[in-house]
Every structure is written in C-alpha cells, then in structure tokens.
Amino acid sequence: MPLRIPDKLPAIDILKKENIFVMDSSRAHTQDIRPLHIVILNLMPLKITTETDLIRLLSNTPLQMDITFMKLKSHTPKNTPIEHMMAFYKDFDVLKDKKFDGMIITGAPVENYAFEEVTYWEEVTKIFAWARNHVTSTLYICWAAQAGLYYHYGIPKYPLPKKMFGVFKQHTLMPLLPIFRGFDDFFYMPQSRHTEIRKQDIEATSGLQLIAESAESGVSIVMARGGREFFITGHLEYSPDTLDKEYRRDIGKRDDVEMPVNYYADDNPDNPPLVRWRAHANLLFSNWINYYVYQETPYDINKIE
What we know:
By secondary structure, the chain is α/β, with parallel strands linked by helices. The chain has 10 helices and 12 strands. The radius of gyration is 18 Å and the shape is globular. Belongs to the MetA family. Pathway: Amino-acid biosynthesis; L-methionine biosynthesis via de novo pathway; O-acetyl-L-homoserine from L-homoserine: step 1/1.
C-alpha cells in the first residue's frame, strides 16, 4: 500500500530494505486519491522502532493512507532525539480541530503507576474523549488498552504476581467478526506487562464485547461501539526481536526478569525467536483498516461524528 508518511522519516529506508512499499509526502501529492487519514499517538519510549513496526503493518492493503504522528505537550520523551520529535510529530493542540479515519494509541512504560498518577493522564484522557467524535475507529494497544477501558468504562487493572512476558496462544470468541476474517482457530500474540484486566469485569460492563482471550494470558481483545474502539492487551505489532531486546536489557538489572515463554526455539535464549504472530498481525491490521475504517468512514472526513 502507498503510505503517505513524512519525508525523511527513518522508517522509510528501513522498510524499503524489506521490500515494503512506502511513499513519502512529496510523491503522494501527485496522486489524485482521497487517502485515509490515520493518526498515531506514540507513547512508547523507542519512537522510531514503534513507528517502523506500525507502518510495516499498515502497509499491507492497497489503500493509500496519510500517516500523522501525534505527541503529548505534557511529556518529553527521554529516548528519542528532540530533533526527531520536532520534525515528525505534532502536538494534540495542533491536531484537535482535525478529523481522522483511524487512530492508533500505543502502549507506554507507566503501567505500575495508578492511572491518575501518570504525569500526562489529564492530556491523554482529553485525547481519549476527543477520539470518540473525531475518529472513525481507534486501536488502543497494551497500556493504552487498559487506560482506555478504565477511562471510558471504569474497568480496573490488577497487578500480576509476575510479569506476563512471552508469546501466548489466543482464541477468537466471535470468529465471524470482520476483524477476524481469514484467521485460524487460534493465533499468537506477544505480551509484555505487569498488570491485567479481568474477564469478569468486561462481561459485567454494558457496551463491551470480549472477542479474543487466552487460557494463559487472559483478556486479549475487547471491542466496543460496534468496532469504533478495539482494546488489544498485547503487542501484535512487535518485531521478531523486540522481546529478546527487552529480556537482555533487563536481565541482571531487575529481580523479576524471567525468560519470555513460548518465544525462543526450544526455550533456549541462545536460539533465535520463533515468529508465530506475524501473519495474524498483518491480517488484523488489514481487516481493521478495510472493515472498520475504510468501509465505515464517510468520504467527507468532516462528517465523522
């Protein structure tokens, strides 16, 4: 898919080496096509890595998309050069009068804090509320999924006795939904979190549908408002080596670090990871774009409500 992304974004060169077609803004403006407008609120510490992971998945349909990266005014990232943020990201205040066909809100390394203790909680909840009538469909990922469910529906999170870390088998509970078109009976999803949301809270809350779960890792995907909101507890967007990098970063520095389960060949960290989630990750993002964004959004983007 021809993705319209900012000129000179580092992801362009990375993805071209993978034979993934992306189009910078200069070339895209020569095409007379109404692109889908997708905004990404990237709360992950390694911004460039997350940008590349998400663009890789969004590139898997024939639809043209115009990608905008949003940042918080109330938070300055420590692990991404300020020059990168200034060149490729826009504050919410700059974007709040615009409407978007789709939105992705990523995880964030703040899950051990109570939601209200997060320094940018006030701003991020303004964005959650704004998305309700400025975006056709929104994907909330990992911490954002927990935060969105808490803000919109009052769903609490609970600390886990140990980190949920590895790749876990997931089962679709509503396999006929368009989001699961082409899925097998089960799929795999990377998880990396210290807290959880619980099935009984989801099932007791009007307006929420639990649509995928795991016997090992619990709640997987929750849908609301007929697909205008999806809450995904894990990281289908992760690259093959992301959990490995996280494991090697933390081992010896924290006392709660265990090897990611179901991840390395023969459960041996000297072996490479077994990548078992990539096909379904591509399917899920393609289905979301096709059935919940493209086929639902009005041609006149200003009519989103």
